[in-house]
Design brief:
11 strands; about 25% strand; about 25% helix; eight-stranded mixed sheet; about 250 residues
C-alpha cells in the first residue's frame, strides 16, 4: 500500500518552502510537495546529480551527438496541443498501464500550468520532425528539478531521455547551479536504471545526501523497521523561517 507524506505548496513563501523541502527528498506535483513514506518499504530514494562531479560516459557522449540537431526553447509553463499529442504518444508507448494513462488534455494542462513557483517548460525540437521532447522543470535556489519529462517514443534508440538530462546539466552549469534533481530512484527497477548511470549521482538516505555507491549495493528495502513513524519523520523535517518581520 503506497503512502506519502505531503504538504500544500501555496502563498507568498511557496518558493522558499519548495527549496527547503526539495533538499530533504521531497518532490513537487502541481501545488503539492510529497515524499514517499510507505509503512513497510523504503525503496524510493530521491536522486540528484552533482554538476561539478559529473563527466559524461562514452554512451552519453554518443547520445549528445545523436541529438545535436535538436533546438532547445525554454518558455513559461503553458500547455499546448502539440505537447499533449507528444505526451499521449509517450504514455501509450511507455506507460500504458501507469497512473497517468487516463490523463486528458485538461489534466495535462493542470500538470503543466498549476505551479506556484518558478517553473519552465523546456522544449526540444528537430528541424524536420518538430517537437521531440519536453521537460517541466522547476528552478530551485540550488539547482534544476526535472518534474516530468516525455519524448517521441519512436526515437527511443536516440536516448532522448538521457539527452534531456545531459542538457539540463549544461543549463545548470551555465547558470551556476550545483545540482540537477531527477526525482526518485528505486534499486532494481528497470525503468529507473538510467538514473544510476550518471556520474556524480547523490541519494537522500537517512536524512542526508550521500554519494551513490555501486547501484548493486542497494536493495529495495521492504522491512517495516526501515521506515520511521510519521510523527518522527515530521519532527525531523527542517522548515524555513516563514515569519515576516515587522517594520
Amino acid at each position: 500500500m503506497e503512502r506519502k507524506l505531503f504538504t500544500s505548496l501555496s502563498g507568498d513563501n511557496a518558493d522558499r518552502l519548495n527549496n527547503s523541502l526539495s533538499k530533504q527528498g521531497f518532490r513537487r506535483s502541481q501545488n503539492v510537495l510529497y515524499r514517499p513514506s510507505c509503512a513497510d518499504c523504503a525503496a524510493c530514494l530521491s536522486a540528484r546529480i552533482d554538476v561539478e562531479a559529473f563527466a559524461p560516459s562514452k554512451s552519453q557522449r554518443r547520445a549528445m551527438n545523436r541529438n545535436k540537431e535538436l533546438k532547445r526553447l525554454a518558455t513559461s509553463p503553458w500547455a499546448t496541443e502539440e505537447q499533449y499529442e507528444l505526451f499521449r504518444d509517450y504514455l501509450d508507448a511507455r506507460h500504458a498501464d501507469g497512473g497517468m494513462a487516463d490523463m486528458d488534455v485538461f489534466e495535462f494542462a493542470a500538470m503543466i500550468e498549476e505551479t506556484p513557483i518558478r517553473s519552465r517548460v523546456v522544449e526540444y525540437s528537430h528541424p524536420e520532425r518538430g517537437l521531440t521532447g519536453v521537460s517541466l522543470t522547476d528552478v530551485l535556489d540550488d539547482g534544476l528539478s526535472m518534474v516530468y519529462s516525455f519524448y517521441d517514443p519512436d526515437r527511443a534508440n536516440d536516448s532522448l531521455g538521457t539527452y534531456m538530462i545531459l542538457d539540463h546539466i549544461e543549463i545548470a552549469r551555465d547558470a551556476g547551479l550545483p545540482y540537477v534533481y531527477l526525482g526518485y530512484w528505486v534499486p532494481g527497477s528497470p525503468k529507473m536504471g538510467y538514473k544510476a548511470k550518471f556520474k556524480g549521482v547523490e541519494l537522500y538516505v537517512g536524512g542526508k545526501w550521500q554519494k551513490m555507491r555501486d547501484p548493486a549495493d542497494y536493495d529495495a528495502e521492504r522491512h517495516p523497521l526501515k521506515t520511521d513513524p510519521i510523527a518522527e519523520q515530521v519532527a525531523n523535517i527542517s522548515l524555513p523561517d516563514l515569519r515576516t518581520p515587522f517594520g
